[in-house]
Write a structure and sequence with these properties.
The complex is a heterodimer. Chain A has 16 helices and two strands. By secondary structure, chain A is mainly α. Chain A has a two-stranded antiparallel sheet with strand order 1-2. In chain A, helix 6 (91-122) runs parallel beside helix 11 (189-214). Chain B is mostly helical. In chain B, helix 1 packs across helix 12 and helix 11 (244-251) runs antiparallel to helix 12 (259-279). Chain B is flat. Chain B has helices spanning 14-50, 54-57, 71-76, 87-116, 123-135, 142-152, 158-181, 186-194, 199-228, 231-236, 244-251, 259-279, 281-288. Chain B contains 13 helices and no strands. Classes of the chains: A mainly alpha, B mainly alpha. At the A-B interface, helix 3, helix 4, helix 6, helix 7 and helix 8 of A face helix 1, helix 4, helix 5, helix 6 and helix 7 of B.
């Protein structure tokens, strides 16, 4: 840290310390002890995180440059950029990149819009509001594997799932015994995954946006209404600008989690029919194909892509943080 | 949606406008109720199906009014049909979630204290380092962890998961705790120090009362994420240390599908998180948004 306050001075007075303790040095030494006393509580957490999260990433980078398939142990060696070349030329890998982007963008955008609508609905008082909020957040609280199983078997299933069951029932009401019985998971597998994830993530978006709405100054809205502003004007010129940061935060946090999704893809389709996203593909390369070198290269590529998203995310959170510090 | 009823303009009758507004408000309340029910419906269906017999669970059209049965739950808990007992995975999940949550608190509370109350220099850089570890996909660090575990005989051990879950939840916990601790008024700390209060007194008398709800919320979030985790558990555990989510994925096998049993299992395994989440809805928001939204 070249810009430190105590560090640059530390070298010079070292000799003076040996000669005789001058008051100024004693103070500086006391300051330094205090600095360390301040840092000490941070260290366990920092050291732990570096050991458990950063070191494995480093190892992943190293492995990504080796030729290493657990099924062919004799072939181990330095591979230079072969794994990366394989990653970028592998059509399956490219497809899974596309799938990841499509899946993430769709899920985040749709659940953000739905969440915004729901937050606006819940931002007004009506009978049973607390209960409705509780009903709405339930999808987010179901264990993700359980919700994936629920969608796959109890809702989507072509012969006894609730969706087709409801179609049969509705058609039955009109006296028809030949209702359409689409096979949802086969016809549109990616959409099936997306719908289940949108169901799961909309409550998350709603919760954050609702918190944002409720932090809005009520008197400004009231004043605007008194001045004859329409509901749409209030939304467009007061609510939306205020919500911007919360929308960004919700979108970016949602992106961080949805990009990493494994449970839904694994459970619903096992990555079949063009639904394999990057985490699932890496899991497959490593766990099923045992190609450690290539899996690591895939991992590194994913990390680099995530860094792009993370930079934006950090900037957004940092602007919220600055707001908190200055107020 | 028309905006007219919401605008009591100067010329119009105020009474009519209010009545219009109340009616729109009623309609919007109804819309909120319908949305709430729609989002809850799959969960309600899961719970209802869990109480049906296997025959009633798999019918088309759905048998909403069929008699209730505890068959699915008996099957799940292994009392009938000699199935695999769910207790070891439930216990594993409980161990991994509770122990890692305790570790998270042990590491995060002092760190957050250093960042919030006596900010070290470059404190926001440190804070962002914590957050950045959360932004990187876990899957990219999985292989080295697997290899190390394989060589040290830690595969299929619940303690490896405890370690990983601690690192997974630590960044969020530091952020959350920092935002809770930042609410301790500095004046109170200064006053305490002028009055000669030592570190212990300051911590127990001033910081702890403000921080307790925050600690509870942090623990809750950490518990939920650990309880839900699948990828690590799936790759790094096997027969002995498998957690509830791994057990759930194993329920659907070549044996065929037992819908009532699967629904019963999903209900039981989701129950701890559901109850905890319902109890702490507000704290959940603050935690999930990394303390950025109050």
């Amino acid at each position: 840290m070249p810009t430190g306050i105590t560090e640059p001075a530390a070298g010079a007075p070292a000799a003076a310390v040996r000669g005789g303790i001058r008051p100024a040095v004693r103070v500086r030494r006391g300051e330094r002890a205090k600095e360390w006393a301040r840092r000490a509580p941070l260290l366990p957490a920092l050291v732990f995180l570096v050991l458990v999260t950063q070191l494995p990433f480093l190892a992943t980078v190293v492995i990504s440059f080796t030729r290493w398939n657990a099924l062919a142990p004799d072939h181990r060696g330095f591979a230079a950029l072969d794994n990366y070349r394989a990653v970028f030329t592998d059509p399956a890998m490219r497809a899974s990149m596309g799938t990841t982007v499509l899946l993430t963008v769709t899920v985040v955008l749709v659940s953000l819009l739905l969440g915004l609508g729901l937050a606006l609905l819940l931002d007004r008082s009506f009978r049973g509001r607390g209960l409705v909020r509780t009903l709405l957040i339930t999808p987010f609280l179901i264990v993700p594997v359980a919700s994936a199983l629920l969608w796959k078997h109890a809702l989507y299933n072509a012969s006894y799932g609730l969706l087709n069951g409801a179609l049969t029932w509705i058609w039955g009401l009109f006296g028809s015994d030949s209702p359409p019985q689409p096979d949802w998971m086969t016809n549109s597998p990616l959409a099936a995954v997306e719908v289940s994830l949108i169901w799961q993530w909309t409550p998350f978006m709603m919760l954050i946006l609702l918190a944002g709405l409720q932090s809005r100054a009520a008197d400004a809205v009231e004043a605007a209404r008194m001045d004859g502003a329409s509901a749409f004007d209030i939304f467009r010129y007061l609510t939306l600008p205020h919500l911007r940061r919360y929308l960004e935060l919700a979108a970016l946090l949602g992106t961080v989690y949805v990009v990493q999704n494994f449970d839904a893809v694994f459970t619903l389709t096992s990555g079949g029919l063009g639904t394999a996203n990057l985490p699932y593909t890496i899991y497959q390369t490593f766990y099923q194909a045992h190609d450690y070198g290539r899996a690591s290269a895939q991992g590194v590529v994913v990390v680099l892509c995530s860094l792009l998203v993370a930079t934006f995310a950090l900037r957004t959170v940092s602007s919220l943080l600055r707001e908190e510090v200055t107020t | 949606m028309t905006s007219a009823p919401l605008t009591p303009r100067r010329g119009g009758s105020l009474a009519t406008a209010t009545r219009h507004r109340r009616r729109t408000g009623g309609l919007l309340g109804l819309a909120a109720w319908l949305c709430g029910i729609a989002f809850f419906l799959p969960v309600a269906w899961m719970v209802l199906t869990s109480f049906h017999s296997e025959a009633d669970a798999a019918t088309n059209p759905p048998s909403v009014g069929a008699g209730l049965s505890l068959h699915g739950y008996r099957e799940f808990f292994g009392a009938a049909g000699g199935g695999v007992s769910p207790w070891p995975p439930l216990l594993n999940s409980l161990t991994a979630s509770v122990v890692s949550t305790l570790l998270v608190l042990l590491l995060a509370v002092p760190a957050a204290y250093a960042l919030a109350i006596k900010p070290v220099r470059k404190w926001s850089d440190v804070l962002f380092f914590f957050l950045s570890t959360k932004m990187l996909p876990l899957v990219a660090g999985l292989l080295p962890v697997y290899l190390v575990a394989q060589h040290t005989g830690m595969l299929d051990s619940i303690w490896l998961l405890v370690l990983l879950y601690t690192s997974m939840n630590l960044p969020i916990a530091v952020w959350m705790m920092r935002s809770f601790l930042a609410e301790v008024p500095v004046e109170m700390l200064e006053a305490a120090s002028i009055d000669g209060a030592g570190l212990t007194t300051t911590l127990t008398r001033i910081v702890a009362p403000v921080a307790m709800p925050g600690i509870a919320a942090t623990a809750l979030i950490s518990f939920i994420f650990s309880w839900n985790e699948l990828l690590f558990a799936r790759v790094l555990t096997g027969v002995v240390a498998g957690t509830s989510p791994v057990f759930l994925t194993g329920l659907v096998t070549s044996q065929g599908l037992f819908l009532a049993k699967v629904c019963a299992a999903a209900t039981v395994i989701s129950l701890p998180v559901l109850l905890a989440g319902f109890a702490a809805q507000d704290k959940l928001v603050q935690g999930l948004s990394l303390g950025a939204v109050k």
